[in-house]
Amino acid sequence: MRNHTIASILLFVLALASPAAAEIVSGIAATVNDDVITIYEVNRETAQLLKEAEKRGPVTDAIRQQVRTAALNGLVDKRLVQEKIKELNIQVSEEEVRQAVEEIKKQNNMTQDGLVAALLTQGLTFDQYKAQLKEQLERIRLMGQEVRAKIQVSEKEIQDYYAANKANYSEDETYRARHIFFRVPKDATAEQVKDAMSRAANVLMEARSGKDFAELARKYSDETSAAKDAGDLGTFRKGEMLPEIESTVIAMKPGEVSELIATPAGFHIIKLEEKAPAKFKPLEVVKGAIEELLYRKKSEERFNQWTTDLRKAATVEIKP
């Protein structure tokens, strides 16, 4: 099994952190064994989820009620997880929290002051953030103990997924081309544009008469590197070239020379040297990515089932 690091999961914590506020008991929404979930907590969680729902479109009363139900269920599951952490005596040391903070700063290219400033914009102090981070680490450790350690992805599962989703692992056609470039200044006069076009047309006739395209690029191209690389554009895929050039190249056959192509910088003559058809990435290349994908999918499914079973064994009462 590949190594699934704590740091990779914790990268999301900064973005997901929500402002902490003083708990105000405004009524009981639910009880979980001997613990209480207040209406205030449900309202706060609902408000956060509604912000996300509003990004997807108008929020109706029905959606609002669904969101509130989801918020309450989420809080119930969180309480059950916290109780299980205490039951199993899962502990995270201050040093582990410190290391996690350092890893997050490194991954996000942040200084300590930068992290503190970012937290303040979310209404969090650094100590509050560390407390949230500790909870996340405890949850990850619990999942590793109760869920992830019991998951395996077989070779057959990887092979079957690859066979069923092979189209997702294809490489685009690749093209290798040369060009001869005739520069047109940004503030060019009509006469300068005409002159560049005239020069380009004359060279185009030479290129199509069978003269060596690389030598023509060295001799006539206004590109400074042409003398060395003979106008070689290298190998590229769709989306990696100027749209004006790409649309022409895609329609060409190897060995063909294009018409004049006008771009904001000037005129181009293109010769397509090679065109490699699309091909599938070998299983060996994408095996790790597929294993990770299947592992995460199984983790989510198993964790959801685990929390469902946990809830069935608990005493949960939802208040009217």
Structure description:
This is Periplasmic chaperone for outer membrane proteins SurA. GO terms for molecular function: peptidyl-prolyl cis-trans isomerase activity. It comes from Geobacter argillaceus. With 320 residues, the protein is of the alpha+beta class. Among the domains are: 24-89; 173-277, Chitinase A, domain 3. Helices cover 56% and strands 14% of the residues. It is built from 13 helices and 9 strands. It has helices at 6-10, 13-16, 39-56, 61-87, 94-107, 112-120, 126-146, 155-164, 190-208, 213-220, 226-229, 243-251, 283-313; strands at 28-32, 35-38, 170-171, 174-183, 232-236, 261-263, 266-276, 279-280, 316-318. The chain has a 4-stranded antiparallel sheet. A 3-stranded antiparallel sheet has the order 2-1-9. A hairpin with a 2-residue loop joins β6 and β7 (266-276). α8 packs across α13 (283-313). It is elongated, with a radius of gyration of 30 Å. The chain starts with 5 loop residues before the first helix and ends with a strand.
Describe the structure concisely:
The protein is of the alpha+beta class and 320 residues long.
